[in-house]
Specification:
Helix content is 39%, strand content 19%. It is α/β, with parallel strands linked by helices.
């Protein structure tokens, strides 16, 4: 039986602002990526999210991002590799502390937003992120865009890496995520997105934004907790994968 990890970015509420339906989405996935307070989240939200994930028995990952609350970590920042290393290490340590307090362990690290996107193409940044993960705990899994520099950087340091496929994002002909500045960067046809994800897992191919067939590698599938229909989408995606004889479990 083919297996796949189904992950979700969440824990993105902050102070008086609430985002997502974390308590309902968590039981439907096999791993979660928890915001670490830089692009979203705060200490109280981090602790609560880790507790919910631990109780649900799902794998817990740190989701470090650029220090950019106003831009939700989706604006580029020209950090040096040394600065990036420090920011990522700081955020991993913060979430790991909450994991320890809740009697569970940190399982993986997946950068957020523009930090993730840039690390897929910028080897110096990718090396800095991978080094931060290795130096904190070389047993952690590093999650990055399939075919990107982050996965290569992690593997070069001996880390276990997981190639990620985005269920709700369009891809360019080159296999990269379509920039969010494009009007159709995010898929709105849920039925199509679900069918495409199953194809990615079963066949290793999808259609690009122009209709070209491209190859994709998928160890884990990403969904987003801030989507207004996140709960319905994750439920349908899980049902379709299981219906295609795909087992849902952490990497």
């Amino acid at each position: 039986m083919r297996s796949i990890d189904l992950n979700c970015d969440l824990g993105e509420s902050f102070g008086r602002y609430t985002m997502g339906l974390d308590d309902q989405v968590i039981p439907l996935v096999s791993s979660v990526n928890v915001a670490c307070g830089m692009h979203a989240g705060d200490p109280t939200v981090m602790r609560r999210t880790v507790r919910m994930a631990a109780q649900a028995g799902v794998a817990i990952g740190a989701h470090p991002g650029y220090p950019d609350l106003q831009g939700f970590g989706r604006r580029d920042m020209n950090l040096s590799p040394d600065e990036a290393y420090s920011f990522v290490l700081y955020q991993i340590g913060a979430l790991a502390g909450f994991c320890a307090a809740e009697g569970t362990q940190l399982h993986h690290v997946k950068p957020h937003g523009q930090l993730y996107n840039r690390a897929a193409a910028d080897r110096a940044l990718a090396d800095a992120i991978a080094a931060a993960v290795r130096d904190f705990d070389p047993q952690l899994v590093l999650v990055g865009l399939a075919g990107g520099q982050l996965v290569e950087a992690g593997e070069s340091l001996g880390l276990r890496c997981a190639s990620e496929f985005f269920a709700d994002r369009n891809y360019t002909d080159e296999g990269e995520l379509a920039p969010r500045s494009m009007p159709n960067a995010t898929l709105t046809d849920e039925a199509f997105a679900v069918k495409r994800a199953v194809r990615a897992v079963r066949e290793g191919t999808i259609e690009s934004i122009t209709g070209k067939t491209i190859r994709v590698s998928a160890d884990t599938i990403c969904t987003h907790g801030d989507n207004v229909r996140a709960l319905e989408f994750v439920r349908e995606l899980r049902r379709a994968l299981e219906g295609a004889n795909v087992e849902i479990k952490p990497v």
